[in-house]
Description:
alpha/beta, 10 helices, 2 domains, globular, TIM Barrel, Urease, subunit C, domain 1, 19 strands
Amino acid sequence: MAHILAVTGGYVVPVSSDPIEGGTVIVTDGVITAVGGAETPVPGDAEVVDASGSWVVPGFVEAHGHVGVHEEGEGWAGDDTNEMTDANGARFRALDGIDIDEEGFRDALRGGVTSVVVKPGSGNPIGGRTVAIKTWGGRTVDEQLLAMDVSVKSALGENPKRVYGDRKQTPATRLGVASVLRDAFVAAQGYADKRAAAAEKGEAFERDLGKETLAAVLAGELIWDQHCHRHDDIATAIRIAEEFGYTLVVNHGTEGHKIADVLAEKRIPVIFGPMLTSRSKVELRDRAISNLALLAAAGVKVAITTDHPVVPIDQLRLQAILAVRDGLPAATALRALTTNPAEILRLDQRVGALEVGRDGDVVVWSGDPLTVESRVQRVLIQGRTVYGPASDASAPRVVERWERFGRASWLG
């Protein structure tokens, strides 16, 4: 029998369309089947969540985090962010290092974050494949998958040159980091040509997982997530992307405002942040929250990131609030938490808006989520409550995984 849930009576903000006063959102077997006003019919067998007096918004999408691969407070034992033994880590996958019981996922729910793109770190010029997952609900990480193949994480700037320069290895300079990327893509081009020739002749072909990953980037199947802060590193990212013809997304973009018109002209989006940090290294010297508003004003599509655990993932919306204070329009800030990251990372068929056909990831807030005093009251992932009122207390609580063990997972 179908599981039907209806959220009724709240101020529904679909983000992709106009808000609805006293609206209704219906989720059937994990997928949104109706979004409308009070006149929207509610099936008699539906589980009803009364959201009267509350705001109803899509679950937030964290576009760049290390939750689950960088476990807080666990030291080296819980740090699987960077495999810094090979400058070209294209064959590595963040998915293989995620602990879904890490506390960061509970924090995500408290902050209204229902989807996260988990990425390797920035210690290598090429860090490996990223993965998009739900922030709760499965018995294993595989049951929380949103998209297995999203992008490949790469880094320019200080981090990789420091890691390998300290070892007196290539790359020890920005020149060396760029050369690692070019060499890897040239090798991937040759690999793709040989693979195609072997397939045409019906011959056996020996797979190389690293080259296979980069060939997928060149074919447009995977996005290139480029860690870069300084404007010159962003320019290098653009240069190499245009040389090889892949889809570039700038991650961090601390100085992106200095060449915002270039980014806008080339339609290169920026996943901006983290914002609540000190200027801990030279390339952050011009870091400012107001830079995000400058990027958006120039026409750059922007998303906001905590870079968890650099900033705790539940502070994602606090960064948006501060960006609004410093000039970012509130509507843009809300899109930067929802529709924009979903579109930038090709997840918008599933998440990012309250829209028929998308996943029933719905968050009920006590008020406008872009006001500091608002709190998360309930979180639904695919139409099931994963954070909500306890039976014996008014404060919301996480619905722990083991409370559902023993029956089939509801996440598809």
